[in-house]
Amino acid sequence: MPPNFHADTPLAQRMRPASLAAIIGQEHLLATGAPLRRLVEQGHLPSIILHGEAGIGKTTIAMLLADAVNRPFHALSALNTGVKQLREVLDSKDSLAFESPVVFIDEIHRFNKAQQDALLGAVESGDITLIGATTENPSFSVNNALLSRCQVYRLEPLTPEQISAVLRRALSEDNVLKRLTIDLQAQDTISQLAHGDARKALNLLELAIQTADAKQSPIIIDDELVSRVAQTALVRYDKDGEQHYDIISAIIKSVRGSDPDAALYWMARMLVGGEPADFIARRLVILASEDIGNANPNALLLADAALRSVQSIGMPEARIILGQVVVYLATSAKSNSTYKAINAAMALAEKDASPVPLHLRNGVTKLMRNQGYGQGYAYPHDYPNHYYPQSYLPDNLAGTSFYEFADNQREQHSKQFMEWLKNQAASND
User: Fold this and answer.
1) Cβ contact 103:89 at 8 Å
2) Which residues of 79-104 are buried (b: 16+ CB within 10 A; e: fewer)?
3) Which of 28, 80, 281, 397 has its CA 20 to 30 A from that of 370?
4) Phi and psi (nearest 5°) for 225?
5) CA distance linking residue 314 with residue 56, whole number of Å
6) Fold adopted by 26-154
């Protein structure tokens, strides 16, 4: 155990990696040839912002980056740092120092505009190297002037395999735990409950060990104990197995059946089980077109906006966006008329390859026009109500209908409009 740690120091702190090479996860940034690894190997560290969920290594990476390039490191928290304290740190730079110090600001999204503006001059002049950490999307939470001076790197939640590696390392390397004989049977359960958060996983392990019967040898850490110390029911959900398909099916059918409460419950089951939020959002986009369609075209717009928002925001805030859109879709008017229409059209297209009628072809050359391309086509905008009744299907398919207006207010309104157009055209003949 390092000399500045003692047994009362939390396990997560004791297991903080001592080098970039010791970090588990974030290979896309730290592996050989990855962006941050290349920077420190070249002895260069620009101002950056680390974006990602809690407990995945933002603070640790910031400390180790500064250490790797031999820079002084000053850590601040946006929760308790005002402009005055910030300026004191910025003004404390040794004018004789060749390299600028690294100023790490945790929760930088909590800085107001004045606080963020106070950083601009020092970052611009190179008096400091800023490393900001945020759980919020920097595009929305950091002002553009500061954002343009920093490179943003996204950190990813740890995978279950990486969480398991963190737990195994703790058991084998921590000076307190390696003195004990521990039978960790709940490794998968801790990984599931941690949701990609290494700190949470280590805290759960430590709490379970402290709660277990110390007289046992080995000390058994099983699912029941972890569930008890976590004060939560174990979520029985296999996001890579049959339940993945069963529960997404339950969500879709609940929304289709206009039951917002059931849709929320099944969606919550998926989210608590660790299902990626963007997978759910993509399925809702499909549903918005397949099961709602022209009964409420805004449903597709909202679902698509939700997908893009979920991808940029991430969990846990993405749950709010998904909750809104699933309730909206469940309580919307429903129609599958366009879904049936495109299926019918594609089924026919697989059997029929009739040529495009001459009047619908584009006569772009003299030869084409001499062959009759475009002849007889009536330009609808030249006629009353921008409509002229003419055939747009091959002769052998004349009169074929794929789309039928469903019995909802919006589509019935469109049906009435189309009937009115045709009646008006007939009366003008």
Assistant:
1) yes
2) eebeeeebeebbeebeeeeeebbbbb
3) 397
4) -65, -45
5) 14
6) Rossmann fold (3.40.50)
Q: How many CB atoms lie within 10 A of CB 277?
A: 24
Give the right CATH number for 160-230 from 1.10.8.60, 3.30.450.20, 2.115.10.20, 1.10.10.10.
1.10.8.60
235-271 residue pLDDT tens: 555 555 567 788 889 999 999 999 999 999 999 988 8
Paired with 103 in beta bridges are 74, 130
Q: Tell me the mean pLDDT in the region 21-26.
A: 92
Q: Which residue ranges make up each domain of the chain? A: 26-154, 160-230, 242-330, 352-428
Q: Do domains 26-154 and 242-330 have the same CATH topology?
A: no
- State the CB neighbour count (10 A cutoff) for residue 151: 12
Q: For 85-112, what is each residue's pLDDT tens digit?
A: 777 776 665 544 557 889 899 888 888 8
Class of domain 242-330: mainly alpha
- Taking the alpha carbons of 310, 313, 317, 321 in that order, is the dihedral positive or negative? negative
What is the H or E stretch that residue 63 is in? helix 58-68
What residues contact residue 365 under an 8 Å CB cut-off, 6+ apart?
none
Task: Using DSSP bridges, classify how beta strands 151-154 and 129-134 pair: parallel, antiparallel or unpaired.
Answer: unpaired
Tell me how far CA of residue 112 lies from CA of 47, 81, 143, in angstroms: 19, 11, 9
User: For 263-395, where are the E strands, in sequence order?
Assistant: none
